[in-house]
Amino acid sequence: MLVTLTATLPADTDCRVYPIARDAAVDLPLESATLIAEAAKASRFTGDTGGWFELFVSEGGRTLRVVLLGTGEGKVADLEKAGGTISARLLTSGVKHVAVIGGALSADALAALSLGARLRAWRFDTYRTKQTEAQKPSVETLAIVTAESADAAPFVHADAIVSGVSFTRELVAEPGNILYPESFVERCKSLTDLGIEVSILDEKDMAALGMGALLGVGQGSVRPSRMLALRWDGSAGAQPQPLAFVGKGVTFDTGGISLKPGAGMEDMKWDMGGAGAVAGVMKALALRKAKAHVVGVCGLVENMPDGNAQRPGDVVTTMSGQTVEVINTDAEGRLVLADTLWWTQKTFGPKTVIDLATLTGAIIAALADQYGGLFANDDTLAGQLTAAGEATGEKLWRFPMGDVYDKMIDSPIADMKNMGARYAGSITAAQFLKRYILEGVSWAHLDIAGMVWADKPGTLHDKGATGYGVRLLDRVVADLLETA
Ligand code: BES
Ligand code: MN
Ligand code: ZN
Known about the structure:
The two termini are about 35 Å apart. The model has no long low-confidence stretch (mean pLDDT about 100). β14 (about 370-375), α11 and β15 form a beta-alpha-beta unit. The protein has 2 domains: about 1-145, Leucine Aminopeptidase, subunit E, domain 1; about 160-480, 3-Layer(aba) Sandwich (Aminopeptidase), CATH 3.40.630. The radius of gyration is 24 Å and the shape is elongated. It has helices at about 35-40, 75-90, 105-120, 155-175, 180-190, 205-210, 210-220, 275-285, 335-350, 360-365, 380-390, 405, 425-435, 470-480, and strands at about 1-5, 15-20, 50-60, 60-70, 95-100, 140-145, 195-200, 225-235, 245-255, 295-305, 315, 325, 350-355, 370-375, 395-400, 415, 440-445, 455, 465. Helix content is about 35%, strand content about 20%. By secondary structure, the chain is an alpha/beta fold. The protein binds ligand BES, manganese (II) ion and zinc ion. Ligand BES binds near residues 253, 362 and 449.
């Protein structure tokens, strides 16, 4: 779906969409204005956000499809949702050329509407070879009729977000036989064209650095592990210490020798959703030329059972020198992050580190698909993240941490074990990560296990990969690093 901005209504338009605020009068410049107004009223159309009233009328001797689209109070979230509704309703409707009549809506409002439409239109059809015509998207163009200019800042920003979110969704949606550590890295290499510095560690490099925890997780897989760092410096040297994003990139999580049950195991292709979000936000930041210095690091491994896989009870030594007793090989994400977090801090010297991980099933038990879990050693950072979540709709809820939880991962034979007791599983996982944060570094951990994949369509996504995290982190960069 190609979105264009145009000052005049394209001649090939076969569906006109009129945004209508809540309880606003319906008075369209069409021959059937009275019919439309009366029909909308009879159908209880009120202009509530996402409200939809569609009919066919005769206009200039042709049959025209007309839509009244509710935009509620006209806030950014209302317009995003309304835009999403356009795609949900029209994408496979048979309509080819949609025009949204922008009227008096601002560039901000129209950018939000087009963002919603584009995010909701994203599909992953790569492996579908037998779609019928009726299943394929019919909409080719979405013209926004307005006097605003396409290079206005809100549209440039929306473009970057759409590209970043789409990139994340693609990485998340790809199956484990296609997307594994090396192919994840391959897909990120072209980010250099945008000015991102890409660096890669292979297993030899990581062994030399002593990353026994990350390598231990990957040792049961024939797919070699990788560390991927993406650096964007749009600060012109003004920000010597970057903000660091760190992602869990388990490209498939079978659980290893502590094998997961078979039912639903296919979901574990998206156990790289944290790394996917990190790659996507880096792309968005580069595309919009963010005035910020940011590094995104992805720890990439596949967790498989095998003759060479690590065993429950194994003790591994992390790059930090701390040792871990691996009680459960399915608690692998924290092992990967232990070395990834340590290496990130030692290599890039960030003041602030934010990690994202599909880390625990327990966070889904607590929050379902409504909030990501937030854990932090810094109240200010936690507040900023919570605010960015509210602003973007990618919401977070903070959990407590503390010594009592920390003690739950003490081991009788090593410095720590990789799981706690039965309860507070998301918190003990966070306590584990905290042991790999250097003194003085401000840190937050986002457990996004409930957020990266959707079983049903939402306002801004279809079923499947959501791209959660890209908009949140983009906002964090804007709020923390780009306000003068
Ligand atoms: N990747 C899983 C967490 C997960 C579960 C994500 C379900 C999305 C949906 C993680 O590696 C894992 O297996 N965690 C274990 C930890 C436990 C063994 C301490 C869990 O949550 O059960
Ligand atoms: Mn696991
Ligand atoms: Zn996992």
